[in-house]
């Protein structure tokens, strides 16, 4: 059976695959720092050459920022588009790294071998799982299955300023049947997952102004309005005593979880005590009568991410401040409309203002939730392949965070994305001593070989 | 009439009085900055010499901090103790000063002549009004009236760490019939006042901890408790919808205003629209059905002086913070017990904590309100003298702030204080371009001459 041959090839070639990944990791492609512009370019060149070496028609495409890498191969069958990013986060504080972040080495740890360095997990290691699967496939079959495209960006860690314009400008070229995105993780470090629900995000900054300058609380206290008190009352009013959000119309478009998905989540036996216990908590603090996974994946939230006002230094100062501000975000689900919620939120805040207070709002982005069409048989085929590889029933899961690329594929190209990844909870993404388990890398590339095989059979 | 002779002497000697004050102002006695320790010492020496030059038995008294200056004269009659402070606030930001803060000059302004420089109003200029009154009295009479003591400290602007121990250690020497304190201002820049009510102050810092570290709001939002939300709810609950403070027992010991005092305040025709209008407000925001002056002088308050938590920088970060904290102060009146209120406040906060949250309190001081015994005929005598000098009925007023020295005289020595001062609202205390009106200085010293005369006649 040819899949077995591909898997055997991947097993045999693992040391070389690790060497190739180390080469890519040695290029310090920190996208947010202009000092590394040349390195970002070099990483793109490396990928173009690597794709070309396995027969893919790949090229570097300039943008106002760092270049994209785009490649294509094949011309019939299901068109799969693989997305990853070659840029990495900065490495400071450097003194918290045990080793040079850009000289990645294999380390033995109590939990197995890991490759440690910046970008190992996020996202160069994950990106290469797919490339290595293709390389082995090509070595065994002499060709790649169906129609494959590759799309790597170099600005994911710096806000992706060129991504949407590039996708819009090249929509016909990038449109495909399904997108494959490898930038997520295993559930509980052992269950392979396909993320099918992503929460959206609405960010608002609210600044309340009372007096036109900071006042002395002895001289004015009692008679002058205090904007911190006003802001606190606004924030306190955002949730009712059942933990539900009070912004009018907020729950419009929030669906109940389909029973099959609910059953799948139930089967995950999510250990919320351990999840919360790790961060010093014991109880899910969200809406009454919702499970912890619902709170995290399928229910909307309203959080205060920051608050500030008056004297915040050491000691005490009896100031009655002129201004107080808060950064407030909403995680959105289903078909909640971010812009309608923004409007309703702003109307709520304005309605809570006492005389002599004014409010200023700052827009910090608005993106709707993402929901994949798991009716597409490709999803079940991929899920089966993952289950085979990991020996554990693969799960459709939600993701509490926002992965904007999935939304762009849907909104700009009309393409559903399969978010499949092999990261573990302790990968230290964005932090010192980032690592990627060699098992994640190895079984990751084997997973993609199985998925390519399953989707090819579907053709 | 000998009072007229003293007043005439003060008028004639005004240029020299200004020169003397300028000499004292040129000594940069910034008490909070160790670099100026020698200057604080020099200011104390200057005062000792000046008091000695008018026949007062004055000496510099060492403390662990900056020295006190104590002087005495006379041995019979009513014993008056005059208090002032010779230290000043720092001058930064220096570039906001139009002139060298320690080279004070007379300036003509649309509102009259002013002496501009650090300490002109707070408190060297005010302190010297009393010394100059004594100097003129001595020049005319050859002696000073009754029994007089002088008590100048050099740490008022840096928390007075040596004051209470010094007063305790020297209580017998410092005890007097009444204390005179010149560190306050005119009402509406024209009505002389005697402050008879001072609000107390209780300062508390509250830090709420939820998760044991900052979390990603995508990963944990919904399930993890957010300490900013908890803190906001606590703050929002501190006042009811009538503006009253909800801490149990808070209003114990809050008296209604005596009708004669209320009538006196009414007669001041306080222009709260102008007072609030200057800072961009239009309406008194305190308890329902209380006048603005009541809110400022005779009603207790609860203010949030600072709040902080989560991400406060530019842009947005979807953090779910571990901690949130607020600095909260209570202005106290009547016989409210600061320690009982602290205990009740802490119990209230603790009762508002949801599961998985903890609270830490930091004590930032507790002092009760001060209330002078205006039944003492000295108060009416002084009020009459002030009325004579300024041609406006002098008023007993409250003070929204806290002037700890008045409380110390009462608590440690059992002495009531008369707080009389001649500052104006635009004196820029603690700020760049501090000034003192020459009229304040001149009529201030004349006021003290009249008060000395009135109190001497009372003997």
Describe this structure in words.
The structure is a homodimer of 459-residue chains. The first copy, chain A, has two domains: 2-198 and 369-458, 3-Layer(aba) Sandwich (Aminopeptidase); 200-254 and 300-367, Alpha-Beta Plaits (2-Layer Sandwich). Chain A is of the alpha+beta class and 459 residues long. In chain A, helix 3 (124-141) crosses helix 14 (438-458) and helix 12 (377-390) packs antiparallel against helix 14. The first copy, chain A, has a six-stranded mixed sheet with strand order 1-2-6-3-7-17, with helices on both faces. Chain A has helices spanning 2-25, 37-53, 124-141, 163-169, 171-174, 217-220, 227-236, 259-267, 272-277, 292-298, 338-351, 377-390, 404-413, 438-458; strands spanning 57-61, 68-73, 79-85, 105-109, 112-116, 147-153, 178-181, 193-198, 200-209, 215-216, 301-310, 319-320, 323-332, 358-367, 370-371, 395-399, 417-419, 435-437. The mean pLDDT of chain A is 95. At the A-B interface, strand 9, strand 10, helix 6, helix 7 and helix 9 of A face strand 9, strand 10, helix 7, helix 8 and helix 10 of B. Strand 11 of chain A pairs antiparallel with strand 11 (301-310) of chain B, so a sheet runs across the interface. Chains A, B: InterPro entries: Cyt/Met_Dipeptidase, Peptidase_M20, Peptidase_M20_dimer. Chains A, B: Keywords: Hydrolase, Metal-binding, Protease. Chains A, B: Pfam families: M20_dimer, Peptidase_M20.
């Amino acid at each position: 059976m040819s899949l077995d041959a591909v898997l055997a090839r991947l097993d045999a070639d693992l040391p070389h695959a690790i060497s190739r990944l180390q080469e890519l990791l040695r290029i310090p492609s920190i996208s947010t720092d202009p000092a590394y512009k040349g390195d970002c370019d070099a990483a793109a060149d490396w990928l173009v050459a690597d794709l070309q070496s396995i027969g893919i028609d790949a090229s570097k495409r300039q943008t106002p920022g760092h270049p994209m890498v785009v490649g294509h191969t094949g011309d019939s069958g299901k068109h799969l588009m693989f997305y990853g990013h070659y840029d990495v986060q900065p490495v400071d504080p450097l003194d918290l790294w045990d080793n040079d972040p850009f000289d990645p080495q294999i380390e033995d740890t109590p939990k197995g071998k890991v490759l440690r360095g910046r970008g190992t997990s996020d996202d160069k290691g994950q990106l290469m799982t797919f490339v290595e699967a293709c390389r082995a496939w090509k070595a065994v079959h002499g060709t790649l299955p169906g129609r494959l495209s590759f799309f790597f960006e170099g600005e994911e860690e710096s806000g992706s300023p060129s991504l949407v314009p590039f996708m819009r400008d090249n929509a016909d070229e990038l449109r495909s049947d399904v997108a494959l995105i490898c930038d997520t993780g295993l559930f509980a470090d052992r269950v392979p997952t396909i993320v099918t629900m992503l929460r959206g995000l609405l960010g608002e900054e609210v600044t309340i102004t009372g007096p036109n300058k900071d006042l002395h609380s002895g001289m004015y206290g009692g008679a002058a309005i205090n904007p911190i008190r006003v802001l606190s009352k606004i924030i306190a009013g955002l949730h009712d005593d059942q933990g539900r959000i009070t912004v009018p119309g907020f729950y419009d478009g929030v669906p109940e979880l389909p029973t099959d998905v609910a059953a799948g989540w139930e089967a995950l036996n999510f250990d919320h005590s351990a999840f919360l216990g790790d961060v010093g908590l014991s109880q899910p603090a969200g809406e009454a009568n919702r499970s912890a996974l619902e709170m995290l994946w399928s229910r909307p939230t309203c959080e205060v991410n920051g608050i500030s006002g008056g004297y915040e230094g050491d000691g005490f100062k009896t100031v009655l401040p002129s201004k107080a501000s808060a950064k407030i975000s909403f995680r959105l689900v289903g078909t909640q409309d971010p812009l309608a919620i923004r409007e309703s939120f702003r109307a709520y805040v304005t309605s809570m203002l006492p005389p002599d207070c004014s409010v200023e709002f700052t827009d910090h982005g608005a993106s709707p939730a993402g929901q994949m069409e798991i009716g597409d048989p490709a999803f079940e085929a991929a899920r089966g392949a993952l289950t085979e590889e990991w020996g554990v029933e693969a799960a459709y899961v939600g993701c509490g965070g926002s992965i904007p690329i999935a939304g762009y594929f849907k909104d700009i190209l009309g393409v559903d994305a399969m978010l499949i990844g092999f990261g573990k909870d302790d990968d230290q993404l964005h932090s010192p001593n980032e690592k990627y388990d060699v098992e994640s890398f190895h079984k990751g590339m084997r997973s993609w070989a199985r998925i390519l095989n399953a989707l090819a059979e579907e053709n």
